[in-house]
Amino acid sequence: MIPSLPPIRIAACGALTAFGDDTATLAALLAGRSALVHLPVHGSEGGDLVPLAVCAGRAYEETIPPSWIPYVRLLAERIPGDTAWGSPRHPVFVTSSNFGVGHLHAFRRHGNTAHLAYGTPFDCVDALVTTLGWGPNITTLSHACVSAHLGLLQASRVLAAGLADSALVFSFDFISPFVAGGFHALKILNADLPAPYQDRPTGSIALGDGAAFAVLTRDYGDYVLAAQSLHNEMHHFTANQADGSGFDACLADLPDTGRRVWLKGHGTGTLDAGRLEAVALARRFPGAPLVSWKGALGHTLGSCGLVELALAIAAMRAGRAPGTIGATAPGFTDAVAFSSFDLAAYDGAVCTSNAFGGAHAALLLHHA
Amino acid sequence: MLERWITALHTEDAGLETPAATRERLKERFPKNATRRMTQLGLLVGVALEPLRPEHNDAIIYASGYAETRALEGYLDSFPTPSPTLFQTSIHPCAVQQSLITHQRSIRQFMPLTGGDRLPAQALLTAFLAGTPRVILCGGEERGTWLLEYGRASDRTFAFALSLSATPVAGALARIELEFSDAPDSSDATLPLPAFFDCLHERRPIDMGILPGRRLRINWLQ
Questions:
Q1: How far apart are CA A322 and CA A309, in angstroms?
Q2: A143 vs B125: CB contact, 8 Å cut-off?
Q3: Which CATH number fits domain B2-220: 1.10.10, 3.40.47, 3.30.1150, 2.60.40?
Q4: pLDDT, tens only, B33-66
């Protein structure tokens, strides 16, 4: 078991998706809308149509200056207070899977050397830090689609050790031909949009822009990260243990609290992983309703753990959770909720994310 | 102040060695045919990790600024028919995964970090706070080709892995201290990953500010 942490409070959080901020996104999800549209995988260079959810007005192909900068600035303006983020007592934990690597693709295709300034993870984070005026106390974690959970965990540890008064976790991934091209090459993107948890001959996922922040503290904030767990199967790069033991191992480390939880699964739409996750969650939390939102938002990759945490909190504040949009019964288990549902009967949520290499992450969230 | 003890250390300084030469040199250290698809960094991190025999309850902290540069270069060059294998391999923590998947070793905590001049400072703090009896801190870089021409890749190839204990143990190689103060100090000193590697490889002591309000000391005990 991961050494236990004291409960960590979430003093503020927010998200940005192709629908807009977390308020707009929750409203869209509750209305059953999808942000996905069909775009050529290589952008202006064509290619197959693939399902993507790009922020309104943002260019899918990399631009100079980067098209994602105004969006992170907009999100960062919502971080409350005037805390000196990046100072010794207020560290920042940045997480992403792709950072600005799409700029290297743009450079290689078109030769504009201005793209190089954003291409490596630390060049990209430097640009972010400069844009947002943060200090140097920045930790950058990158573990594909569980990246945001690692940021939350490390920020929690720094707080628990008394090394910070508050910590900012900031996650982002903006899609580009670089990443869509990669997922398309893996043959898991297609324009038919088979939806998460729907039993079809082939699974598929969609991709979407996502960014989010959370301000963590020891002692104030309406919501609590009560437990966090990780597990890395190291069985195969793109497949999980066939018996679902990797999912089980991660969920087993969440404590039994007696809370009535609902479940925000990872649920990208890949069949094997979706089925294993749904079955493992049903085994660990019998009767708890399970939803995935990636059929509406697309998979926001390294940011998904924090984007969906912010949306889960927005749902808890609103008292209603969106269902699994774009899918219809039967689901992988009876627990899959296709319609939105009232949260009055629940006093906690479990949020999960999974990644290449059989990486799993989960957290238990409840009201303070 | 936090302190830990280095109980084992393995370094691989491949310098300007080509991936093919590294593969040939190290192929006997891996199961038959396992090295065929491994990256140079994956090979070196794997060789550095292997003597430590990572176990499920160890925490592994991984630090690399550029990670799988050759795979990334190859993936970028594969457009407009992008390579699925190179896409997968170019993902940041792949070097550690290559080794652990080869040996089918599950790990509960795997914390991959990236960054620039302050990467070792943040990786050390992550390792210090992992909370497991043994923590493995590993990292490295591989020399790039065309990305290096544009200053976006490492100019050398190296890897390291060390195990940390939270308690003093007989035979420990070194003591590491992280000292904290709330006041930002004026030190602009930084410790990039290659410099940190050199200190480990040559067992040179360190005593420097590595972030505002944070000081690192490494004293070698043998």
A1: 13
A2: no
A3: 3.40.47
A4: 889 889 999 999 999 999 999 999 999 999 999 9
